[in-house]
Amino acid sequence: MKSVIISRNESGYARSLIEASLDPLVTISTEGKITDMNEATIRITGKTRIELIGTNFFEYFTEPAKATEVYEAVFDKGFVADYPLTIRDHKLTDVLFNGSVYKDELGQVLGAVVVARDITEQKRIEKEFIEAKVFAELATEIAEEAKSKAESATRIAVDAVKAKQQFLSNMSHEIRTPMNAIIGFTKVVLKTELSAKQKEYLMAIKMSGDALIVLINDILDLAKVDAGKMSFEETPFKMALSISAMLHLFEQKIQEKNLVLVKEYDNRIPTVLVGDAVRLHQIILNLVSNAVKFTSSGTITVSVSLLTEEEDKVTIQFSVTDTGIGIPDNKIEKIFENFQQASSGTSRLYGGTGLGLAIVKQLVEAQGGIIRVVSAVDKGSTFSFELSFLKTKSAAEDDPIILEVDKRIKDIKVLVVEDMALNQLLMKTLLDDFGFERDIASNGKIAIEKMATEKYDIILMDLQMPEMNGFEATEYIRNQLHLSIPIIALTADVTTVDLAKCRAVGMNDYIAKPVDEKLLYSKIISLVNKPAAERINEKTPDTKTPVNWKCTNLMYLSKRTKSDPALMMEMISLYLEQTPPLINVMKTSLETKDWDGLHAAVHKMIPSFSIMGISAEFEQIAIHVKEFAARQEPLETISNMVTQLENVCNQACAELTEVLNDIKMGIHEK
What we know:
The protein is α/β, with parallel strands linked by helices. The chain has 5 domains: 17-119, Beta-Lactamase, CATH 3.30.450.20; 150-226, Signal transduction histidine kinase, dimerisation/phosphotransfer (DHp) domain (Helix Hairpins), CATH 1.10.287; 235-391, 2-Layer Sandwich (Heat Shock Protein 90); 413-543, Rossmann fold, CATH 3.40.50; 555-669, Up-down Bundle (Four Helix Bundle (Hemerythrin (Met), subunit A)), CATH 1.20.120. Helices cover 53% and strands 17% of the residues. It is built from 24 helices and 17 strands. A hairpin with a 3-residue loop joins β11 (370-376) and β12. α21 packs antiparallel against α24 and α22 (595-611) runs antiparallel to α23 (616-631). It is globular, with a radius of gyration of 32 Å. Mean pLDDT is 78; it is low at 1-6, 339-353 and 531-548.
């Protein structure tokens, strides 16, 4: 009788221990079957005790294979600690599992006890803390900007400026199309037999056209920067070669004006840096162009010097000094404003619109740099700016090799996809001059129809067309026709086109209008002669991680945490904890066409891109995936982008794990 009482007491005591846990707790057999559980488990699964007993442990998780690993690890090692899983309940509860085996009096393993610690609230609080901090900083910046604007202009003036910018942008695009044709055909005619007078007239037309294109580009850049839509590439490039190549553009003009060009370059600057070489060219071109324009005698000095060097980045100062007309003291503060010049007579005497310096200032500041000017009337000016660039061990992207046209190469058939009749005629003329066979399609739909009956070696694809644009046509060719034929995008404005989207849909390269015939010829020859396997890999460059390419940049995180190791470790650990499950949910949701799940998973990823310094290009891809998921687009439309997000997030996790270990080592050594 006494033993029965003890047994009941022991049973009640065991039950009270099980129910004492507020987290889900289950006991499982060596076969992974549930043998007992507490009320917390019943609540979270929504099943009764009878329904749960005898079922498989792994059935209640989003990743059954990983859940199986949990109980196998318990019986293999005798315990498991802090194993992340997600319970398949109405809200997908994130938990950390801890478990250990229990034995009989003879030491034989009877089963295991596992406890799931619910970390949903912890994750929510941590996520809200991060988002609140980021949004608070953004709100502060926005508030400061709004205050500055409110002090400098009335609401009517701001609206008027916006209306002006929109008008200029629209007009620029309308002007560009006929200008491309004018410049293109002028180049074609200049290559024919001409009298000296005819050539002089045509050169005047070409120079005027080139000047108009520069003006249009300035207006478009200005409108884009002001609208906050300017994006910056992060690619390896050779700074010294890049600067030298750019300054060659001014040699003829400098010789014509009997000026002296001096280049000073600091050899301590690393050979290859990561940044936006195109935007750097744009800034220096504007400054050197101004220096040449406003200097009638003397010297123009372009100086590039290393200011600071850290483990992962360098800060470089660029300066352009001239011995020109200078700027009055009372005009220096306004010289960087839109449509401003040193005096009312400057435009009449020297030309220009006063847009160049406004664009330079905004391009520099948008990259976190600063720009200064020192000037004296009749003595000259010095414009200097500072920019930071990441260091890298990667090789720089090679500049395209410009080939001379070889009329003996005739076995190339080109499909030109272009809706404007003038541009069609221009492309026909250029390709005929190359000796290539060509065919014309007025939009993407017609191009696809032609490809069903004709075989082409390469496609020149305009982006903006009726019925089916260049992006849609390329995506169809890659995903539906499964063709690796090289495709070159034809864009009227390389500064505003979404180059990331061009790469994402599978375009191999791009060329800006008005088309440089030698560059076009070189790109065609290069891509047609390239092995198909290489072209396929180029088709979606973001789906594979380039060697030595880093996808994270912790400059922002370091700045916001004031380089506090503990806080940085906490933020990085949070990312490493939350990202792998989100990747799995994203992939599973895509496979099962769970659009809401896909939308939610990608939505949770997006804030971490800026925090961990992952390129804005991938953030835009994530936004596109969200939009496609909301519209329930076909799988082939977004599968490539999901793969890109998976790859970049996995690489980010690998990089951040190394960073986390380095920080821990640093703290330990101290």
